[in-house]
Amino acid sequence: MADRRQDETNTAHNEAMKRQQAEHRAKMREKKQTERGLLMINTGDGKGKSTAGFGTVIRALGWGHKVGIVQFVKGAWKTGEKEFFTRYPNLVDMYVMGDGFTWDTQDRAQDIASAEKAWAQSRTMMESGVYDFILLDELNIVLRYDYLDVAEVLAGLEARSDRTSVMVTGRNAPEALVVVADMVSEIKAVRHPFENGIKAKQGIDY
User: Fold this and answer.
1) What SS3 state is found at 145?
2) How many domains does the chain have?
3) Tens of pLDDT along 133-162?
4) In what order do the strands lie in the sheet with 39-43?
């Protein structure tokens, strides 16, 4: 009896998966290939926005794509990603241009100047036609503090090469950016070790 019930369960599962496969294939036939790179945003108050961005970097590299990275905030930090790409400099073109968090610099003029320099580098890369994927890490943070003009950033993103996909990370993505993006992922905070008195952990948080 038990074997019969198991057989019936397996048969039902197989039939359900066949239906699901057929539905998925039908949906895929309706999709089209885009002729232009995507604009993607990772935002929200949860941890993992930059982490997901660097995961996409690895995926793009796996396909032999040309990848660029501009970090707008974490320049003063010694991070795992910076250490990795320092050891393998030919993998990506990485520009670490921030001065750290605003409460560390305590100098708005300096923060604005650093953001403008990083944005100029970003525009050069996006418009070059050389890159398949560019990660603009923590760009949303400098937009949040009005270090860059949102309209200017939108114009720069629109002017990127058709070849180039761009991912922008950081919490509090401006609505104007969200509206024009092809993909928006909002990472929600449920629990974080910091709330329990645990400091940032090397290899996990940085």
Assistant:
1) coil
2) 2
3) 999 999 999 999 999 999 999 999 999 999
4) 93-96, 67-71, 133-137, 165-169, 39-43, 183-186
% of the chain at pLDDT higher than 70:
92
This prediction has a pTM of 0.86
Q: 2 and 59: one domain? A: no
Reference 46, options 132, 137, 172, 164; nearest CA is 172
Cβ burial 75-107 (10 Å sphere, 16+ → b, else e): bebebebbeebeeeeeebbbbbbbbeebeebee
> How confident is the prediction for the chain on average, in pLDDT?
90
18 & 75 share domain: no
The answer to whether 164 and 133 are in contact (CB under 8 A) is yes
Phi, psi of 25 (to 5 degrees): -65, -35
Is the separation of the CB atoms in 75 and 98 below 8 Å? yes
Same domain flag for 128 and 41:
yes
Token pair listed for 108: 């708005």
Q: What is the CATH number of the domain that holds 138?
A: 3.40.50.300
Shared domain for 17 and 43, answered yes or no, is no
Pair of tokens at residue 80: 């795992």
In a domain, residue 157? The reply is yes
Under 8 Å CB-to-CB from 17, ≥6 apart: which residues? none
